[in-house]
């Protein structure tokens, strides 16, 4: 890790395909770790660790809230890192190994513990899982906006990252149910051991993916710009967050993120219940359903990326958001069958791609011009505070899933679920997420940074960096 730091050639420079793909591979680990948690953690607690749904949801809520609090801290620390090897990659290298270990521990049930001790165990491991996930994820996501100054290249980077994220998703979604059966059989029918072995394997894959990303992006990280005492060191995390939130386009993005992902987490966390109990899918069919979903993601991702390059990220995001919102409400009415579920998943795939490709590229847009408003660069905090919104949404969504499962009288030990419970599961996969996505639409509509306004702002920023006096009203009107 002692290679020299070589700054990107500059604005307009294109990256090699190898660099873009190499960076994207890290998202495989991100997707695998994150999706394993929100697809299966509550299911694991309720159906294998013997913890009731409301308590399982509360464990997730508190742990993810803790993670949300640490996001801005990690972003601030990486922003002001003086490590000569770079601001971001050293964080990834140091935190990815303990992250892999926490994945294993998170899905390991110590059957000898009573319920109270189990709850304490899973809560504490959750805290450490999210701490190390944040220490990897925030620097990794921020790094993607610093490899190049070319906005089109940033969209392409996000497209590659999204594809690998969903390769991680398919490994977590489809691979889990298949591997669980195989490993449990090897353990003499012990599903608790099966879960531990699956998690150990996925933890190893997560670590390897991040190290591949680190190795293939050598020489691209920008060295710390401040080598002595400077203004940036005097800016505390609260000032950085406060000034960021005063930027209207960023604020709109933040609230879009919050409401969209409450809905998305609601849908994705309940899919395993929908597949298993409402549609009666076997583990093979569940794997096929998740695999088909990821294929849709991979197909849609470059297409939406091209639309965003041509029409702007805001248009791409709005198209994807309207599509997923309409889809949720339509499938409250349209019968859910083994065929129609794949049609439903197509629009959800589009909404997901919009979030991962367009919205993160929009955060990079804001980071590029935020010094006009704040007077300092804080890319890491901007990304971290955006992730903070994502984590808050995850926490609220997973907690609500536990609450609604309890309300709809879900019982993991029942031989057959009632119609009331089955209809509740369907509502949780359709109309309830739709309501949250509907709330998110106005925030995207009022995002004001278009390609033309971004160009004007960057021109003003260049003039300001050269020492010219700029009337604040000129850029306030655009921001």
CATH topology: Growth Hormone, Chain: A
- The end-to-end span amounts to 39 Å
Write down the Rg: 22 Å
Secondary structure: helix percent: over 70%
CATH class: Mainly Alpha
For the record, what is the CATH homologous superfamily label? MFS general substrate transporter like domains
Which descriptor suits the 3D outline?
globular
Mind summarizing the main beta sheet? none
String of helices and strands: HHHHHHHHHHHHHHHHHH
Structural class, by secondary structure, is mainly alpha
Number of separate helices? 18
Mean pLDDT: 82
What are the segments in which pLDDT stays under 50 over at least 5 consecutive residues? 1-11, 227-233
Judging by the overall fold, what is the CATH architecture? Answer: Up-down Bundle
How much strand? under 5%
| Extended strand count | 0
Tally the structural domains.
1
Descriptors:
mainly alpha, 77% helix, 479 residues, globular, disordered N terminus, Growth Hormone, Chain: A, single chain
Please outline what is shown here.
This protein is mainly α.
Account of the 3D structure:
The chain has 479 residues and is mainly alpha-helical. It has one domain: Growth Hormone, Chain: A (Up-down Bundle), CATH 1.20.1250. 77% of the residues lie in helices and 0% in strands. The protein is built from 18 helices and no strands. α1 packs antiparallel against α2, α4 packs antiparallel against α14 and α5 packs across α12. The longest helix is centred in the middle third of the chain and has 36 residues. The chain is globular, with a radius of gyration of 22 Å.
